User: Which sequence fits this backbone?
């Protein structure tokens, strides 16, 4: 302390006339804070001079992150190859066991069996030689090295032609679920109320049915704008409203509804084809991760059945359950899903999935996006970050942004779509579980009000209930449930 006091005395003496005996503490404090301020200024200047070095460190960190992604990608390729190769080997082993069982059955047959000629001779040695030749013929030139190469490419061997077992031969494919079955709950509610209205009509009051029918349609949640259009079309028909039967009213409304939701058929179904020799990127958004996962599975399977090479990016960083479920499903379906460990950013997984899809020349990439119980603004910012990253790495992408939601009441359906559409510019909606909703008519109102087309509809839990949206069939099933009405509605819509 003494040395510090002497230092200050010397500084003040150098600055002017100063008497040590009249030392003022305030001057000491002022001098102390002045020196401190000078030190901080120099420190700040020193930091600024180091900014270029910090930029180099940031670039180095970016290179390390990129290298880490490449290592993860290579590890993912090895894991996928191992899974595919294991599946191929298991399939071959299963067919070999089948051949062994056939051989055992033949050994137990009596020597005079007339079937022996079918197996190349009348003794065991001839039959063994025949089976060996059959196995070599079925396997062809397929070797372990060929299996590994196919596994790395994610393909199946084309020259393995085995007979299916008897149970598979006898099994019949389940018929696809129809709109009529999926919309039965909504249709029954509308039909019951229309029947009550027509039963209570006053034959002398020509306009007495207009308001009651409007109420029925509003209760069905068509929306005010759609109801006005439906009633205008219904009243412009050849028959007066009072002369119409229940079937006349239902058929007329079906034709009118078909006009409201009529879309360009070519723009409903997403073509799983590359864009400028790069994968078509489809962004999947929604608040319920379970509905998103189910929709992604069905969309991926739907595109794969058309012969497209499909990949999925499990980029929902807020839901480890969705990533885990998609990864498990990948092993069952053979469709590659790119994911990552917990707490990894959505943009990191999306970057990895996009470049993997580009390297493997995939036709279409489905990108799952964040969802959860966090603030909506946080979720929307995360999704925008994913979009910005994809756009930076592949111009003009993403090409589609689909909203996945479960059919529910009008307000519950409209609000999330309105908010997401304002933030993300949706290109279409995919509706699930319409068979559980008694007000499926609100899809007409939502599509009309927000100008967001319905692209796909899911009926039930099975894959057979997933289909591209058909405005004609949807409208006919909503009012009549008769397939023949769809042809009439199609002609009316045209």
Assistant:
């Amino acid at each position: 302390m003494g040395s510090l006091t002497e230092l200050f005395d010397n500084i003040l003496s150098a600055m002017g006339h100063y008497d040590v005996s009249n030392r003022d503490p305030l001057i000491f404090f002022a001098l102390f804070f002045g020196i401190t301020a000078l030190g901080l200024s120099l420190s700040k200047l020193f930091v600024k001079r180091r900014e270029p070095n910090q930029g180099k460190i940031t670039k180095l960190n970016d290179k390390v992150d990129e290298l880490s992604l490449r290592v993860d990608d290579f590890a993912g390729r090895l894991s996928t190859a191992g899974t595919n190769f294991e599946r191929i080997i298991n399939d071959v082993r299963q067919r070999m066991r089948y051949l062994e069982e056939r051989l055992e059955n033949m050994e137990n047959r009596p020597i005079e069996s007339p079937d022996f000629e079918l197996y190349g001779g009348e003794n065991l040695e001839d039959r063994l030689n025949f089976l060996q030749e059959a196995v070599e013929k079925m396997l062809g030139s397929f070797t372990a090295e060929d299996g590994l190469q196919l596994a790395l490419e994610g393909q199946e061997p084309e020259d393995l032609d085995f007979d299916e077992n008897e149970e598979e031969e006898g099994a019949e494919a389940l018929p696809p679920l129809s709109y009529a079955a999926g919309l039965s709950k909504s249709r029954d509610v509308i039909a019951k109320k229309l029947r009550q209205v027509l039963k209570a009509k006053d034959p002398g009051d020509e306009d007495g049915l207009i308001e009651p029918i409007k109420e029925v349609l509003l209760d069905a949640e068509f929306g005010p704008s759609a109801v006005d259009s439906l009633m205008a079309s219904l009243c412009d028909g050849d028959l007066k409203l009072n002369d119409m039967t229940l079937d006349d009213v239902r058929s007329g409304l079906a034709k009118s509804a078909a006009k409201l939701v009529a879309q360009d058929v070519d723009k409903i179904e997403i073509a799983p084809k590359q864009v400028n020799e790069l994968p078509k990127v489809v962004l999947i958004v929604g608040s319920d991760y379970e509905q998103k996962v189910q929709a992604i599975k069905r969309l991926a399977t739907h595109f794969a059945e058309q012969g497209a090479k499909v990949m999925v990016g499990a980029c929902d960083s807020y839901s480890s359950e969705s990533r885990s479920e998609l990864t498990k499903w990948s092993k069952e379906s053979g469709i590659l899903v790119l994911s990552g460990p917990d707490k990894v950013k959505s943009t990191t997984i999306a970057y990895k999935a996009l470049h993997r899809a580009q390297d493997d020349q995939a036709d279409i990439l489905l990108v799952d996006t964040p969802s959860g119980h966090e603030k909506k603004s946080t979720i929307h910012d995360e999704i925008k970050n994913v979009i910005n990253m994809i756009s930076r790495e592949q111009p003009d992408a993403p090409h589609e942004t689909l909203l996945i939601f479960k059919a529910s009441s009008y307000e519950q359906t409209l609000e999330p779509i309105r908010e997401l559409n304002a933030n993300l510019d949706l290109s279409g909606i995919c509706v699930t579980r319409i068979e559980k909703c008694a007000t499926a008519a609100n899809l007409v109102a939502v599509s009309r009000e927000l100008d967001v087309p319905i692209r796909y509809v899911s009926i039930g839990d099975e894959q057979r209930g997933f289909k591209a949206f058909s405005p004609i069939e949807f409208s006919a099933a909503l009012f009549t449930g008769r397939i023949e009405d769809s042809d009439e509605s199609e002609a009316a819509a045209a």
Residues 265-493 form a domain with the Rossmann fold fold (CATH 3.40.50.300). Residues 279 and 363 are 5 Å apart (CA to CA). The radius of gyration is 35 Å. The chain has two domains: 23-156, 265-493.
